[in-house]
Every structure is written in C-alpha cells, then in structure tokens.
Structures
1.
Amino acid sequence: MAKMYYEKDCDLNQLNGKKIAIVGYGSQGHAHALNLRDSGCDVIIGLRKGGKSWPVAEKDGFQVYPVAEATKAADIIMILINDENQAEMYQKDIAPYLTAGKAIAFAHGFNIRYQQIQPPADVDVFMAAPKGPGHTVRSQYVAGKGVPCLVAVEQNATGKAYDIALAYIAGIGGARAGVMETTFHDETETDLFGEQAVLCGGVVELMKLGFETLVEAGYEPENAYFECIHEMKLIIDLINKGGVAMMNYSISDTAEYGEYVSGSRILPYEQTKANMKAVLNDIQDGTFAGKWIAENKNGRTFFNSKRALLAKHPMETVGAELRKNMLWGDDADPDTASN
C-alpha cells in the first residue's frame, strides 16, 4: 500500500521564516493562498501585471507582485497557472531568479513529466496535489476538514524537500484528510488517465448520451436531465463516502439489479478496456502531451470548437434553465459545489 501521512507527520514549523509565492490566483491559487495564510504562513502572490486576478488578490488582502519579483522574494514558489502556460512563464520570469536552496512546487506533474520545465539541480522540486478542485480545497478547509493530497519530490537538493512539502500540504489542509506519497511520473499519468477515461471524458460522454437517448425517444428534456445528470452528484457522494457498496445499499434493489444486467451492455468490458488502454498508451508515450502542446501553439482551434459545441448542447441549455427554477438555483458559487 502507498505510504500515507497525516497531521501528526507534518510540521508546519518547517515553513517558519519562509516566504511562499503563489503564482496564479485562480481556482487552486486562491485556495492555496488563503488556506496557507489562515494557517499562519507568509504568503505573497505572483501574477502577470495587469491580469484580471491582480485586483482580486489585492482585495483578499495579499501583497501582489509581478512573477519575477515574487520569485526573487520567495523561498518557495508554487506554480498554479494552467499547465499550458507554465513553461513560457517559467523560462521568462522564474528560471532566472531560481537561486540555490529555493523550492519550486507544482500541483500537477505535467510540465516536469514531459520536460517542458527542467529546474536546476540545486533547488528542491516537490508536488502538493489536492485531489479536488481548488474551490473544494478552500470550502473544506473553512469547514475544518481537508481534501486528500498527493505528495512527491522530484529533487531533494536541500535534504528537506519532503519536510517542506508535507508542511505545505498541512498548511492547505490536506493532512487533515490524508496525504499519499507518489512520484511526478505516476501522478501525471494517472491524473491524465482518470480525467480522460472516467472523470471528465468518460462521465460527460455517458451523461450526454443518456440525455440524448431519452430525449430522442420522446421524453421531456427536463426529465432526462434529472435522471441522467442531476442525480449523478447524489450517486457519487454516496460512493465517495462508502464505496459502491454504500451506493447500492442506498438505492433500490431494482436499481441495483439494473446495474448488474445493463452496465456491461452500455460499456462492453473487452472493448471498453481496450479503448482505455489506448488512451493510457497515448499518455505514457507522450502522444497526448504532444497534441495538447501543439494545440496551444496553434490557436486552440479544436479545443475552442468543442467548447462552443458543448455550450449549445441541450444538456447544457436545459440544465441551466432547470437550475434557475430550483430553490438552490441562484447558488452559482463553485466554493459550495461539494456542500
């Protein structure tokens, strides 16, 4: 079993006297920064001058600097901007000021795994990766809980990289839930696979096809939305709490029987497994990374067209109207999405 760490294994004092620069103030960035500050850490924010997040971070009470200045001032630099923008910013604003003994950190291993970023040998390189969206990292921390995290160390130049990484994770609340040790290599490949095959690619396609099948058969789109999309959260919350067994305990025997007789008809075992292995192979050999890097260099034509098509899909438009008419429909705050 993978090695696990908890609050008793983490010493926040390892961060005493260290200035932490959070680069980026989006979903993960705001959560890390606010949680670390609430844990008593010295936090500054590094952003692109004139970016829309600058006034947001200032409003939240942080000192905000251009990335290069934040890197110069900080002992730990956590990069929390989008994967596709990290390499360029690193080369321009971080690498020239990444002096010996500092630490550079990531919440996802993409740019280290695929060598888009290659830090010098005299700095620590670690990962503190919450297994949930940034808004959940924040809301769970505020509630006195935490989101489970992964920890990995790629370079241990100072000999204290693991201590620093675990302290950082404790600071964002992850040690309250549990911290699992991994590597940049394994985190990157399993994370990409999970997103593509199950959590995002797989689940969204499954919901969309279910919705379309019911609507094309003549059922009301609103009914199709509730049955194939809205209830997904209720099912996943049960699985998250007690596994598939708890979900099956909580649903009807009719539903459980349907699970056994129809699940493999929807996702034929051998073909689905073969398709998943093909996706994993593309991740392992760098094919996916190469396509994504090229997509960003070439104007994101495919990406943007797919996003535009999804926005127009009845699954999205019907869902938006339904949510407006529900008692909870005026709650558009992602910080409460897991509550």
2.
Amino acid sequence: MRRKTGIVIGACAALALAGSAGAVVSARNSDRPVGTWHEAPAVAAAAPTPVAHHGSAPAGRVGDPRVTSVPPTTSDTPNTPDASAPRPGTVSAEPSPAASASHPADHRLESATVKEAGRQRIGRLLPVDSVLGYLSGPQRQEFAYPGASYVKVHFDRLAMLPGDYVTVSNPKGTESYRYEADADGRWAMSVTGDTAIVEVHRKVNPLGLGNALGGLGIGIDKVARGDQRRPPRENRSNRSPERLDRSPAGPGREESVCGTDTSTDAVCYESKDPAAYTKSKAIARLLINGTELCTGWRVGAKNRMITNNHCLTSSDEAYDTEVWFNYQCAKCGGFDVFKPTKVWGDQVLATDKTYDYTLFTVDGFESIQKFGFLTLDTVRPRKGEELYVPQHPAGEPARIAGSQGEAAGTCAVDNPDYTGYAPHSDVSYFCDTAGGSSGSPVISRRTNKVVALHHFGGCPNSGVRGDLLAGRLRTYL
C-alpha cells in the first residue's frame, strides 16, 4: 500500500448527508439507508487555469480564519453573516479545476464548469493555519461548516512518535479514518456531513520522551468543504423540453439534457431493468483533489478503473482522488442514501488525450470487488442501437439515462462514426447527462457491454468508441 493509513468505519448510523452522501451495498437485503441526500447549489463559474497546470491552486482567499482549540474560541472571520462560513474554531476552501488544451472549438467537455476547464467543481478550498501539538496546542480540533456536504482536511505535516496516530472522524464516530506519521503530509479522506474532528492519539509514554520533542506535531494547511446544502432537488422529469439544444457535442458544455430529462435514480431500475441496475453498481463518483468531480468505473475483473484523461492524468492526481462506490439512493424518487465505500485512487497505468481515457488502480481493491465490473465491447455499435448511461451527474447519487424496461427512449446511437478529438473516434447519442458525468460508461442494451466512454456534452453528446479503447487497453485488462 502506498499510504501509511488505516481506516476505521463505524456501524451504519443515521447521518445528515448532502450532495456527497453515498451508499455501501453488498447484498441488497442488507442495505440500510444512513441519511438524506440534498442537491448542492449551482456553482458559480470560475476563471480557467493554465492548461498545463493540473492540481489545486487557490482561486481567491475567502478570509483566513484561524483554527482554535476545542471548545472553540473566537476566530477572525468577517463580521458579515454568512451561512456557509465556518463556525468559530473552523475554516473553508477554494479550488481550481484542471484544464485540457487544444480542444476543438465545436466540442465541449461534459465535466466543465467553464469553457476550457476539465472537471466539474463541487466545493471550495480554504486556507488554514492549524497545529495540533504535543507540548502546546490542542490535541483535538473541530472543523465545522454549517450546511457543507463533506469536510476534507489536508495535513502538511504528520510528525509523530512510533505508535502515535491521528484520526479524522464525524462527530458521532460512525465514519473515522486513521493516519500515522508521514513527513510529506497528505489529504485525509473526506468525512460526510458538515463537521470533521481531528484528534491526536498518543501512545503511553512513561519516560516522557514525547514531551521532550517539542518539534513533533500535526499541521493542517487547508480544508476542502463540499457545497452548501439546499432543499431537495425537483423531479428532473419536470424539466422543460425548451432545454433541447441541437448544438454539437464537445468540451466546455456543463449541462447536456437533450429536452426533458428522463434520467432517474439507479434504484428505480432494480425491478424493471435489473441488468441495468446491476451494471450501475460498477460505477463510482470521483472526488478529485477535494473539490472536483468526474465519474469512473471498474473495467474488467482486475484492479482497473477508467475515466477521462481530462479528469485525471497522473498517479499524483490519482493519489488525491477519492473513489466512491455504491453512492446511490435507497428508494426510487427518495432522498435516503447509503454510506459510501470510499477508496483512494492509486497508480495511473495508461492515459491518452486524443482518446480521452485514463486507466488507473485503486488502493483497497478488496473492498470494492463486490460491486462488479463492466466490459468494453469490441464491436462498434449500430446506428439506432439502444443505450443506457449510469453516471453521477453534478455529483448526484447514481442515476441512469435511458428509459426503464425495454424502451430506451431517445437514448440511442445517433452516429456511430462521430468526430471527437480525432476523426471517427466517437459515438454520438442523445442520452441525458450533466457536468460530473465525464468518464461514465455508455452501455448497449443489447449486449450490456460498454460501447463508449462518455466525455463530450452537447446535443448530441458523445463518447470515445469502446472498441477502440478495448484494442488500446487489451494488454492491461
């Protein structure tokens, strides 16, 4: 394992979840909802970053409140009331999406919040200046942001004696992650909800050695917080057909609903279309660098995940990517959700910009094997072939585009010889998608195999041909 970290997960208890709540499922009859999902608000457009820069850069400081010990003391947050501002003794965040260069002018990346940006933004990155010490400073710190859907802390220093460790947990202790010494620092796994508690746990030290080493301590330099919750989303089937837009698919298009949105919660397919429901278990929500979103999925039986190149390109980016499996609603049309199974991305095995794919592994593969896998189709689909697309649009719990049951509605192949970044590279279709859907599998109803890797929004939308990817990735799968 590349991370010196242990994970402690408590029993599934009721959690107030938001846009980033999820699900953990093995056998269906063992599932119990653990909270309620609420849609995150629309994200304001952010200025694009240089295309050569992948990673996080502050997009403007939103104050610089200092973290204090628990119980919290006065912070230097502004006097102006702000529902999204942290309570005293806490902090916030602001990100910068990665960009992809030289996009064709008539193509728009699905997971872009602004033109030329590569990933869908879901939260903010906030600078912090907090030290949990051995001799001085608190050994327990609360980071609370009312309404946040998740809280994720970044350690710039983890200097501890052997046997000492740090935990990051929710207030009830039902979600908890353990970290040991690491001189390089790291992101902690996100904690679902609006509060994370960081605590230092010291080994019994009868000789007082730890007390003599004042240089030891835990430093936290930034926090990512998920967008603030709002009342539950409206039924997407009520969206007006006026949204229909026949502009070409391509990078930079945030919303790609072609007419009335007919996508529904994945669980709605459980009885009417069990094959589609089962296949949806293999997809995952990707939380990249704390504040950005894409979709990924297991390809083949080995430890292999695939998403778009414009979502992540390197092992360094994969290391800072959370992979959430079975992030699904518990009931069709409801808002109860399950606790997610979260693992870290690990090594990037192959990536290509023209065909917009990245193949990578995860750390903790044994915990996600139960969710199954998908297979790339080695044959190009036919025009009119019916499709369905399991996805995490705008970071929502898993949804599937393509009508339930035997009819796929308008979710079908429009052009099997579509031009993406290269001539003849794509398949186009009118399946409903949205920002955050980049990297989703486009699956044939006839074969239940993946015929395209979704990446461009527009009407029609398009994805890289599955048969081309199957040939390029054969040695890895």
3.
Amino acid sequence: MLLVLAHVVAPVTDHRTGGRPAAILATLFAAAYTWFALVRHWSYRSGGYDLGIFDQAVRSYSEGRLPVSTIRDPNLILLGDHFHPILVVLAPLYRMFPMAETLLVAQALLFALSIFPITRLACTTVGRTIGLVVGASYGLSWGLLNAISFDFHEIAFAVPLLAFALTEFLSGRSGRAVAFAAPLVLVKEDLGLTVAVLGVLIALRPGSRRLGMITAAGGAIASLLSVFVIIPAFSAYGNYRYLGKGGLKAPEAALSGDLLSAGKLHLVLLLLLPTLFLAVRSPLVALLLPTLGWRLGSTYILYWIPTFHYDAVLMPILFCALIHSLVLLRPYLVGRRRRWARPTIGAALATTCLVLFSQAAAADGPGHRSEFTAAADRMVALVPDGATISTTDTIAPHLSSRTDVYLLRVNQPTEWTLAPYDDPQLKPRAADVVIRDGDLVLMHHEADPRHSPTPPRGS
C-alpha cells in the first residue's frame, strides 16, 4: 500500500517551461481582478463586514498598534477572534496608501499571482494549449470570483502560498514546498492542519520522510497552539469563540452538523465540477479535508453555502489535483484516445468554467455609479479625519481608514451619523448640523460627556 502511495505522490516534472504565457495570463487576471474589486467598492457594494474590519486591522498595524476594529467589536483585539498576524506585512504599503482600496488591490494581485505557478505547471506537464485552458479555468473559478466579490480577507495570502507550495511539491521540490506552506500557519488558525496533511504527503515520498513528519507535526501543533493558547490569550472572552463551552455556538451546534445534508453535498459536487471530477484521482484532494471538515461539520449555514470567501483556499488545491490527475492518466491515453482526449478535456473544462462563471456572485457585475454613490462620496468627504461616526455597512469601508466607525445598528453614541434618511435604525439626536444630500443625511451631534465613544483596546 505504501509503495502505491509513494508512486502517486512521485514528482510529475523536474523542469519548468511555460513561464512566459503563465506570466501573461496572470497579468491579465491581475488587471481584471483589480478593476472589478475597485469598481465594486467605488459603487458602494463593499461592506464594513468584512472590508471595513480588515481595513481597521491593517490600519492598526500601520500605526504600531495591535489590530482592533470598532466595526467588529471595540473591546476585542482581532487576534483573539482569528489568528491572522500575516496581515502585518500590508502595514508598510498601507502606511503609504492609507485606504481600503489598498487591501482590495493587494488581494487582487495575490489571487492573480497564484495563477502563475498553476498555469506554468500545467503548460509544462500537459502542453501549452490545455495548460492555458487550465490556468484560465482556475482564474475564473467560482471560489476565487466569490472571494473577489466579497471584500478582502486574510485568506488572500493563503491562495498563492498554496499554489506555489503544491506546484513545488508536484515538481519534486519538497523543501521549497514546505517553505511556501509554512507561512500558512500565520494566515488563519485552521490552515496549520492543511500544512500537516501536506507533510503527510511529503513523508510518503522516498527520501522525504523526515521532512514530511516534521512538517506534519509542526502544522498540527501550530493550529492547536493558535486555537487553545494564542487566541484565548488575546481574547477579551478568554477562549476561542467558535469552539467549546461559552463560545459563539455550543459544541454540539458547531461540531455535529449533518455531513450529508443536501446543501453540503451540493457544495462538494460544486467544488469537484470545475475539474470534471478528475481531481479525485490525485492524493492532493486530501488537502481539502481540514477546511471541508470544519465547514461541513457545522450547522452554521454561512460556513458551507457556496458563497463568500471560504472556497477560495480550495481552488489551488483542486486545480493542482486536476493537473496531477491529468498526468496520472497519460499512460491510459494512447492511440486514438490521446488524439481526442486533450481537446475533449480542454473543451469540457472551458465550458464548465464559463457556466459556473455565469452563475457565480461575480456575474452580477461590479456595479455602477449612481446618484446614491455620488451623494455618498460628497457626504463622506465632509466627515473630518479622526472623528467617530455611526453609519451603514456599505458606507463604513469608505470611512474606516481615517475615522473610528461604528455600525448604526449597535447604537453607539458618536460625533457624527451618516445614513439614508429613511433608515429605520436612524435615531435623530440633538444635532448642531444636519445636512441632506439626495437620500442621505449627515448629522453632527452635540458633544455629550455622558456618551463618549468606547476607546478601542490595543491603542
């Protein structure tokens, strides 16, 4: 059995070609992703949840403070919610360009960067034409598009790290694979388990047993330390809020969901469909298990519906598994089979990709300028830097880089309030200034020492 596993995790190539077409394709996607994300944001289709939260987190780092967010919870250091210290690498860039757009551009470039190694490996192993089809299908995969359509998240770093790690692994460079995978433990607390599974695959390869075992142990230990030691130490609540007694959800609700419900089965099928189900031929699909495990084991529907950003980290795994599977199938594609196999697979990949693309969240388009967005821009410009303000979710990320923003629904007394005049959560108070522009109203409230805003922790 071990000999069979060692064979299927053997390197698929020991040389690199296709770098130029892969770089061109990645550049084109970088431009498209960036355009889409920025136009969407400028059309007020981004939100305080989650762009505003991460904007405030990176802003904190750029100012030399621990990451906090008045939008998320002013009493919570964000490292006590999720462990994502890798965000600190954006601080120097944010220092130069202190705006939410910096995060969106960074995510677009990171996603596009992941296209390069996947396309290059595909061109090297299965030919340039079908390699470019695989690369384009990956770039248009619904997991990446949903993430681009849902603001910014820390997993933007995980996508290229996984892409480079897995392509290096498939190319026989286990040491480099570990070097790319190791920073995943700084992206999010659960990704250490993904590193652990990669370590197991490396350990099955002749000559890499020790490296693989160290990697597997290191990844597992990193996740355990993050969940049970580091996060509780930063948390105002003294625990990991998504697990265990006193968490956001009881253990039975968080860990004993129905793994085989129709909705969850739909997610699994949807994940495998872009690869024409060929990915299951590769042992790399084992890397899906840590992320799918906690998602499918949950009863919280937002964790397993095929929306938001959760599926982005699975796309590099699936498409690297697809490339590996195509290589493993080559001995069976001889004679006539070989002549029709490549064009058939390429056409099927392209068709499936375009169908899923048309159904993805990105198919709604990035949005467009309107009277509301123009009025919102004018109102946002009137709010002074350093102020405290209550506003709606869609306006919050346009103010989070230079003010302390609270969502209107939390009813936090602030100096300013900006919202649609007919918002049911708008509660007028004694105000020095009331400005109306279109459907929006901006109020500057009288100072009241009894209602000073709660200062964020970590400042």
